[in-house]
Amino acid sequence: MSATVSPIREPLIQGKKSYHDITVDLTRSTEQAPSKTWWIAFLISVSLLMFMIFCIIWTIWFGIGTWDLNRTIGWGWDITNFVWWVGIGHAGTLISAILLLFRQKWRTGVNRAAEAMTIFAVMCAGLFPVIHMGRIWLAIFIFPYPNTRGTLWPNFNSPLLWDVFAISTYFTVSVLFWYAGLVPDFATVRDRATGLRKKVYNFLCFGWTGAAKHWQRWEALSLVLAGIATPLVLSVHTIVSFDFATSIIPGWHTTIFPPYFVAGAIFSGFAMVLTLMLIARKVLNLEEYITLGHIESMNKVILATGTIVGVAYLTELFIAWYSGYVYEQFAFFNRALGPYYWSYFGMMFCNVISPQFFWFKKIRRSVWFTFLLSIVINIGMWFERFVIIATTLARDYLPSSWSYYVPTWVEVGIFIGTLGLFFTCFLLFTRVAPVVAIAEIKSILKVAGDQYVGVNTEHHKQVVEDFKKADSEGKAYAADHHNQESH
Amino acid sequence: MRKFNKEIVFGLYDDETDLLKAVKTANADHLDIYNVYTPFPVHGLDPLLGLEESRLHIAGFIYGLIGFLTAFLGMTWVFTKDWPIIFGGKPYWSVPAFIPITFELTVLFASVGMTITFYVINGLGFGVTNPILHDRITDDKFCIAFDTHEVSEGTAQSFFEATGASLVDIKNI
Amino acid sequence: MTTYSIPSKQRTFLLAGIIIGVLSLVGSWVFDSQEFHMRFWTNFLHNSVFFTGIAFMAVMFYAICNTAWAGWHTQFKRVWEAMGMFLGVGLILMGIIALGVVFGWHHLYHWADTPSVEGDDLLQLKSAFLNKAWFLVSIALIGVWYLFAIKFRNRSIDEDRNGGFDYKHHLRTRWWTALFLPVAAYSISVVMWQWVMSIDAHWYSTMFAWYSGSSLFVSMIAFTIMLLIYLKDQGYYPNVSMEHFHDLGKFLFAFSIFWTYLWFSQYMLIWYANVGEETVYFKTRQDDYPLVFWATLAINFLLPFFILMRNDTKRKFGSLMFASIVVIFGHWLDFFQMIKPGAVHTAHELREGHGDAVGAIADHAGAHGEAVGQAVEHATSTFHMGYTIPGLWEVGTFIGFLSLFLWVFYAYLGKANLVAQNDPYLSESLHHHA
Description:
Distance between the termini of chain C: 28 Å
Largest sheet of chain C: none
Largest interface: A-B, 65 and 68 residues
Radius of gyration of chain C: 22 Å
Order of helices and strands of chain C: HHHHHHHHHHHHHHHH
Oligomer: heterotrimer
Strand content of chain A: under 5%
CATH class of chain A: Mainly Alpha
Number of helices of chain C: 16
Shape of chain A: globular
Radius of gyration of chain A: 25 Å
Helix content of chain C: over 70%
Largest sheet of chain A: none
Strand content of chain C: under 5%
Number of domains of chain C: 1
Order of helices and strands of chain A: HHHHHHHHHHHHHHHHHHH
CATH architecture of chain A: Up-down Bundle
Distance between the termini of chain A: 5 Å
Shape of chain C: globular
Number of helices of chain A: 19
Structural class of chain C: mainly alpha
């Protein structure tokens, strides 16, 4: 009994796990009482969340004037945070959808948590445009519905309205996708539970039985959802980039924005996944499921997307010069050498230079270094959005209206508070649901479990031998024959 | 309360390869399998059970098409008939500007519609309680179930014994 | 050991194709109704860029698969290795264009014409990048790619002979492929700006290199599908199964959509912002080249989208072959519309009297260049064979370059085993299940 696996692949599940071991290990976090660390983290997160709510009430009560936005810099921390959070929300769907289509098996270790992270990040993101409206009770106007104003419609030609559709669709589809994956795992938790817990999980798992036909449809659903979530995830940050690129603001209006924003989003999303998972694997004892191999793969994605982002930065810079358009040239001169030069160099250092450390295998596989760099990249991607938004606006066409912007405590409070919201949700998630997808890990056990490495290597050698023999005789290698033997 | 109207005899296997072998044996012996339950999707099982390929994606396409038409025709109607306004010097019927929302609604309709269809045709949903034959089926056991009206208890017992089931039991559901 | 040998019939066939190509080039040189042999040179550039780019994309995708630990493609990775070898020919072809730039044989590039540059502020500014030296650098980059391609291929062939179960060859190649990726990412941008975008010397779009690159990528995948179907039909690659074709079909489908995404993003942003310097590019194409402009979108998006949307069409030779042929033609047409209008415009400007006209408008419009009014002044007919739509000489030239490409491909494919026997992923590729 063996699978056809290349001998140079690293096992993805360590500790010679049986199916039952996997169940026990991965449901444990939902069954045990929370640890002291968890409570401390939870209390801190909830306090930050409370502070955010306070700051939001403050904003609504006194008005947007409590932020230091001005006529020149109309978008500051608010939209920076919005774009930053949306970007972070990209890794989850990327891991579960695009890597599913590319059959990257290592995604099974991190997809569940990454998808959860996506949902929470999009929640944090969605908050900003809504409170930025000022009169939040009129937020309903953004939806096209028959109304009493002679049915006045929103402007469908506005990228800001496209955002409403994109973010809400993305949120909905991410939740559906995530939950479809959770259903069988909730059933696993249900069947281990008793009493009220059993009832609750039976409710959550929709009465899942594990029947063959259900699994077949479940796989079909996952594949199609992955297929349509892939262009969706591209579209979301593309549309966010349209918010800027459709305008005629120098530094904003550039055609590379859509793919460049998407690459940056994946980049920051992976950084955030790493930040969270490095902690989670330690605290929840998941080292055997989220191995150094997983971390290395994610670091490679970070290196690749960091390089793409680097290409985009330099492209922008070059074409700004090449365009011969003085305002565009000035916008980039101002970014790099203007009053906000520190954020530009912060961005360049964090996003383009720091990932280059990942060229070294030792660093890719070092937990501490990865953790450190993942935070550096998170900061760098925040700087990127700040550079694009605030520093570009600070020096507009009219020198008399040039301005400088520093956030107030309210703005900072809301931002820090979203971190509280994010971590509160994530901590609750680790208590309620299996952090690693149980069924999916089981389905790759025979391929990627460390106890199968030896037998799979032998199988590989046998296949190669048979192939060479058939090939030298000028015959086709009979893969079917081998399949029957191996099962 | 649900009615118990079926008597099910089932056997549990420890590994998916044993399960696949057993299903093949059952097919060879012309035993009519009531259902197979597994903790994760087992590849190669569907053709053995004669399950047709799922047509869920066709439903998804239709939902997507509805979403596409809703968005595109809706915006067209609003901006050419119901309340035409010129935005930024663009024509009333600004096709490029309609594409983002059209795309989003296509995806939204397709995925929401398909997911709902998935739960409905599987008989899953909030508050649904389906009978569970054994607690380990969602853990590490692979289960073949026979309806005693189709396959007698004795036949099933000897089948499970012959194919190496680790546990055999009967349950009314 | 299964190796490929070119049947003599095929040799004759390809030779005939190359002769057609040569005749078409001669024809477009002799019977060109416009000055500067513009038609000859645009066709030459168009096809050289297209096929060199496809070879580059084969090497690039090879490197991506290698760094991403992909195993499914291992059986037919020799196909990409052989496609990459066309870079050597591409070096010569683009070298001829470069010599033309240096010695003034052609007037493809507005910026290469000294009198025009003197009277044009924008071109003067750009001359720091748009100059002969940089053009030669861009040609040298093909050489760099070629060296990488040779390196990959040699190591892979050496693995057949000397590789063992320690997989040293593969692990070392992985290092080289990883190094190639950033080199490729940066250099493809530079060469696309130099070779294609600078034909419309005043126009710019940051997305351009990615857009044209995705066009080449789709064509490369389509070529791979076509060649594999052909080779299978000849009895080679018995173990390349429908699962492999299904995956290639998915790539064709997905990247056709990706191309459309980039097309739309570029078009929509320029349309939306409505800045004259940028819209002139699409204005020219929509007004003077409507057929080609809209046909590329229909062929490269609608057809592959609807043909390949279903699972079963990705698993049938007929539909895959049809989609591949259509898409290759579509992207060739896409490059036609990237190259021809700018070159026609340049020829027109130069005929009107070496830069004076440009200079006058440029002075008038200030630093923004002469964008305004550039669009339609030279329009004669919207359906002018060889100018606004491809004519017989264009198709003939395409056949010639295609035959040359295939010739080189088959020659290199025949020089090594068809299957890399000691590749560590061979077993996975042989047992590839969707």
